[in-house]
């Protein structure tokens, strides 16, 4: 479900086969991205192209990733966020938790 493209300075993670980050996949997303942060030493960008919904468990996983990245002096950012996801980020007051890029 997660695909990774390794570039010089970063790892681009993208979701396939889902439009949601919810309780069903949030732990998998968290563990796989954290594994890349710890092993690669690179910054990680989560490409949310096509994702239209993130639930509280999804945001909890994303926040845990961001906190671990910061503790390891790495950047974790979200890219290609839809208006719906940006609205949810604002709603749960997590705008300051991530570096975020819109479509």
From TrEMBL:
Residues 26-103 form the STAS domain. It comes from the Bacteria. InterPro entries: STAS_dom (IPR002645), STAS_dom_sf (IPR036513). This is Anti-sigma factor antagonist. It comes from Marinifilum caeruleilacunae.
